[in-house]
Amino acid sequence: MFKKLLWRSGALGLLCTLVALSTPMLAQSTSFTITAGVDNDVQGSILPSDIVRVGAGGSQTFLVFPNSGYRVADLRVDGTSQGPLTSFTFTNVSANHTIFASFSAVTYTVNATSGPNGTLSPNSLLEFQYGDNQTFSITPDPGYEIADVVVDGSSQGPVSSYTFATIDRDHTIAVSFAALSPGTGAGGGPASPGKSVTPPSVRAAAPSATSPFNWSGLLGLIAGITAVVAMITALILRIHERRAGPRSWAPAFTVEDLEISPKELPLGNMATVAVTVNNRGDHAGTFKVTLKIDGITKGMKDVTLARGTSDRVEFSIPVAAPGSFSVNVGDLSGTLTVVEA
Description:
Elements: H1 2-28, E1 31-38, E2 44-47, E3 50-55, E4 60-66, E5 70-77, E6 80-81, E7 87-90, E8 97-105, E9 107-114, E10 118-121, E11 125-129, E12 134-140, E13 144-151, E14 154-155, E15 161-164, E16 171-179, H2 200-205, H3 215-244, E17 253-261, E18 264-266, E19 270-279, E20 285-293, E21 296-305, E22 310-318, E23 323-329, E24 332-339
Parallel strand pairs: 1-8, 9-16, 18-24
Antiparallel strand pairs: 1-3, 2-4, 4-7, 5-6, 5-8, 9-11, 10-12, 12-15, 13-14, 13-16, 17-19, 19-22, 20-21, 20-23, 23-24
């Protein structure tokens, strides 16, 4: 009986020892950490970020969001390149991990070409980064003038220069030249600056030097009367314009109806920001809508509208941390609140 009791006590002690030894090991292996981040937070973000704790055997998905003008260059998991992925899921987590994203600037091309009898500078297939500006200068050869400048298939007229501002897509610019018309100089003006050009018919009918009639005086009088009529006409038009009020002969855009949906959301979800863009001008045009979160640009979209039309523009917002964030689109502002999931 004593031996049986001793054996049971020893077995119970051994069992308690095994439980005591295994308890810390089980506690240590119930969860693991995944450290997430980006190489440059100006170029993009990853969601969720920083240190994320995942239960043993669990899963966790990470989303990568490049900012406007950038693309995903590489996604590294535990130091190994996965390529330009925009999402990655850890499954059956049984160890600590790391995940980091890197970005590169998006580039665009401007194909600049010109016909003979003049130059377009610069003139080639050029490459630019998002947001760059580039001015092109057009110069005709002597005896020629600029016929037309065509940008992205649309005529700009005989302009001597053209600037692409805040480049955000591919463009083309093509220039053509034409011979000067009779009676014009290299710049399209009089053939001899300061001297008038008399047509042959007038020269044939001009009186001889002995004629008592003063032709130059008559021409001067006609020129004076023409100038006075032009001044009076301009004055009348200005008075009429002031009475009628200003009129827009160009696109006139307004941004209205800012919507944030939802205004409060759990961390790890996406919010939608929407506005209505109106063109109240007399011509079609393109308007750039910019989204800012706490003063930092998080998205830009171009909207092209015909006159008198409107369109709804939407952005999706990834937020990597809880808190209250200021949302601005144009002159409109609102607040987005993110809470712990």
